[in-house]
Write a structure and sequence with these properties.
The chain is α+β, with helices and mostly antiparallel strands and 350 residues long. It has 2 domains: 11-125, Phosphorylase Kinase, domain 1; 133-347, Aminoglycoside 3'-phosphotransferase, Chain: A, domain 2, CATH 3.90.1200. 43% of the residues lie in helices and 17% in strands. The protein has a 6-stranded mixed β-sheet. Strands 7-9-10 form a 3-stranded antiparallel β-sheet. A hairpin with a 4-residue loop joins β5 (108-114) and β6 (119-125). α8 (206-221) packs across α11. The chain is globular.
Length: 350
């Protein structure tokens, strides 16, 4: 087992996973989860995307109070509930892995997991009460901001030796490449909509994109594997007095380092700024990783892998549906322009 850092593991609570917001805020259930008798709980903010995030305040029987945030699939339809395995994966990150990585993440109090039903909720301390500010998906990052957030990604990647122990972390890219429910016809319909406006026809070609993803998955599997966040856009970054931190571990995976780096740079920076700064940011990331003691490719090989990996983030956002349309449109545009600029399809033999 790898060495743990100073972060404590959260409590793994044996309780029913709530399916509704009302059940999640029930004092009896929270008493089980928090290990203290809860008199009442009040929601402060409810954010519903695919998963629901609830900031809430509890009053304990002894009169004390606590501010927390809970994340899970609450009040969702049957189709959305099928995403439960991603909530289990995130709960496992906090319960089994977070204590071994030294990027900044929320302080998790407890996880509740139903492995048979593949549902889970994660209860964390409310970082906003502690002064944190969560970035929105479309926050405007400067190059210095991107360098800071890349530092967090480098901290995560630097702990990739844990993969030898945590074999439950899977290669998500290969799973995406074999996915059947997003057909070429469905993807083409999405790319022909507003999200594809402004991109060249060659980039909006669904069969070509699917083939490129398969080619990237094959190449990526043959390269050294890293502990990868998998969804490192600005909306999954927070800022506070300790710098930046990362949230949302539902796409945790192992894969090539460039999956995170190419996605992150091109998602958080507007295309013109990404084009101007990406080689510098890539060099800085490689230097950080070598500073952590890892062997990394030389600059030319790293640049090649970076350019190929732009396909990953572009595909993720091209198939996305349950997010506000303006966010989808912006990310498909940013990431699609990166794919066009880097000729990622051609690099992958297409």
């Amino acid at each position: 087992m790898p060495d743990a850092l100073t972060r404590e593991a959260p409590r793994l609570v044996s309780a029913e996973v709530p399916a509704t917001l009302a059940a999640a805020l029930a004092p009896a259930w929270l008493t089980q989860v928090l290990g203290r008798t809860v008199r009442s709980a009040e929601a402060v903010e409810v954010i519903r995307t695919v998963a629901t995030k609830v900031r809430f305040v509890v009053t304990f029987e002894d009169g004390g109070q606590g501010a927390y945030c809970l994340k899970g699939l609450l009040d969702v339809d049957e189709m959305t509930a099928r995403g439960g395995p991603t909530c289990v994966l995130e709960a496992d990150f906090y319960g089994r892995l977070a204590q071994f990585v030294d990027c900044t993440v929320p302080d998790c109090i407890a996880t509740v997991i139903d492995r048979e039903r593949q549902q889970a909720v994660t209860v964390m301390r409310d970082l906003i009460v502690q002064g944190a500010v969560f970035c929105s998906a479309l926050d405007s990052f400067s190059a210095d901001d991107a360098l800071s957030s890349l530092g967090q990604i480098a901290h995560l990647h630097a702990r990739s030796a844990v993969l030898t122990e945590f074999t439950w972390i899977r290669p998500r890219l290969s799973q995406l490449a074999e996915m059947r429910y997003v057909t070429p016809e469905t993807l083409q319909e999405l790319l022909d909509g507003p999200r594809g406006d402004g991109l060249p026809r060659s980039v909006r070609d669904a069969p070509r994109l699917i083939a490129a993803l398969k080619a990237l998955a094959a190449r990526d599997a043959s390269r050294p594997q890293f502990l990868v966040h998998g969804d490192a856009h600005a909306g999954n970054v927070f800022r506070w007095n300790r710098g930046m931190g990362l949230i949302d571990w539902q796409l945790l995976q192992h894969g090539g380092w460039a999956l995170d780096v190419a996605y992150h740079i091109n998602a958080v920076l507007p295309p013109a700024l990404a084009e101007a700064e990406e080689r510098h940011l890539l060099r800085e990331y490689l230097a950080m990783m070598r500073g952590h003691g890892l062997t990394m490719p030389d600059e030319d090989e790293a640049w090649l892998q970076y350019r190929e990996a732009a396909i990953y983030g572009f595909y993720l956002w091209s198939i996305t549906r349950r997010v506000d349309p303006p966010i989808i449109v912006e990310f498909v545009d940013r990431l699609g322009k990166a794919v066009a600029r880097h000729e990622s399809h051609a690099l992958l033999g297409l």
